[in-house]
Amino acid sequence: MPVISGKRAFLELLKQEGVEVIFGNPGTTELPLMDALAVEPELRYVLALQEAAVMAMADGYAQASGRLAVANVHVAPGLGNALGMLYDAQKAQAPILLTAGQHDQSFIQSEPILWADLPTIARPFVKWSSEVRRIEDLPRAVHRAAKTALAPPTGPVFLSLPADVLNSEADLDLGAPTRLAAGLRGERAALEAAAALLARAERPLIIAGDAVAQRRAHAELAALAELLGAPVYAEGIANTASFPASHPLYAGPMLRLASAIRGVLEQHDLLLSVGGDLFTLSLPSDVDPMPPGLPIIHIDVDPWEIGKNYAAKVAILGDPKTTLPDLGAALGERMGSAERARAATRLAETTRRLAAAREELHAKARAEATKSPIRPLALWQAVAELLPRNVVVVEEAVSSGLGLRHMLRSDDPQSLFGLRGGGIGWGLPAALGVKLALPERPVVAFIGDGSAMYTCQALWTAAHDKVAVVFVILNNRSYRILKQRAHAMKGFAAQTDRYVGMELTDPAIDYVGLARSLGVAADRATSLDQVATLLRAALAEGGPRLIEIELERGYKLV
Ligand SMILES: Cc1ncc(C[n+]2csc(CCOP(=O)(O)OP(=O)(O)O)c2C)c(N)n1
Questions:
Q1: Which atom of ligand 1 lies nearest, measured to the CA of 398?
Q2: Is residue 398 within 6 Å of ligand 1 at its C-beta?
Q3: pLDDT, tens digit (0-9, with 9 covering 90-100), for 313-335
Q4: pTM, entire model
Q5: Ligand 1: centre distance to CA 479 (Å)
């Protein structure tokens, strides 16, 4: 083996792992890496101006590509800034190798500036967290990190890279990547048990989780849903298009409030969760979302999720892509003519009911189309007609998002990415990562005005790296969701109509000016016609471009 420096070996190892892009923000401890990048033509370094943006870009890239994303941040404060978005990446199961530079190890005992025990900081949010202590360990550490991030359930990992490891030289064997064959098939006996329950069910429902999109199992799930005649809900905090939105059995995202979930589930006698989350809620409730005794069949690649909150009658560890066809075959064998007739009736009824609900939503949107300021639902209806078929939508619309997943035609598993973890500020930088992963597809990001301000630095990266995202800022000049919830509490805020810390006014933020100052062309729309004109132009020209939309500010839900 030739003698090689740690810094160059690290880049060689990343290339072995198929990495093409590194998202980062450097400091002195990252200078060895930046130095090696100066003579590395095959790896693109994408500079983001805040570590939260670095992390969310890597997240968007990892989710949209399904490949390993790599991020590099600066010691303890850089890692600290990244943590909120690392939390989101963990919840979205994004395969990311997050790295941070660390001080020279000979120096650490003196507690130099910016130093902290980095693996301990990252550990709660990653699958594996470690520091590389010797150059000889670098190949093993990087290959293990990549394999672990990409092994189902996928997720982020962390490596701390001390400067002396990167600066030293050794005669290294770089080893080779390991990839787990991911298509784990559910066990036969469990599939038979599940098929028996499904064949007997009178009113089954399906919840589709992100695993369906991640494993590209739309067709397999659609075939099973059609065989059963069962409605398919996306999981409540859905961050991908886990089922084609135009499919007649698509029932939209599961609701998030416990009593509302209970209301849906009570109409069914069997729940089949395919990678679905049962249930991430945002508020406690006296009502348990799960009706007592509702039998659950749970298929997932993640054993942690199966039976996490509610016992599964049949628990199947398996990949939806390979397991659903097996389940469908087992079910097909068990369904006699009576069961098939019942399923056909269910299919017709469910299709009719869901079509009527969709039409009701569209009628509501049409009724709102003439109102000023623009209403979100009318916006989604107008936008749905404009967006090209191959568009990828990145969604952090927060309180404006209601109806979006019914209205937009997100029909393939990479057509939609949304905020899974709940830490806002994700969408704007994530959209850049998505576009870099899917350069052939137009990418449009719908972002709340409040959310945009956490990571607006990403606009500069979009301009600098010419990343053609169309950013749409949904400006209601408030943290509207918090006002809605504070109002619903019927406390002092509702009585006095004072919402402390929730108004983004005095001064109003000028997103057009902000975008232009960071090098992104921008315009403002106050009517749906203007939205249509600007969006069409932005899609035709490519981006990056930003459209600021003035939206209604109403927060009284009832
Ligand atoms: C990192 C982080 N900080 C704060 C919050 C709390 N929070 C949730 S929604 C929200 C306001 C979002 O405002 P905006 O994006 O304008 O959407 P709107 O509510 O107006 O629809 C805030 C501050 C959070 N979820 N994550």
A1: 21
A2: yes
A3: 999 999 999 999 999 999 999 99
A4: 0.97
A5: 6
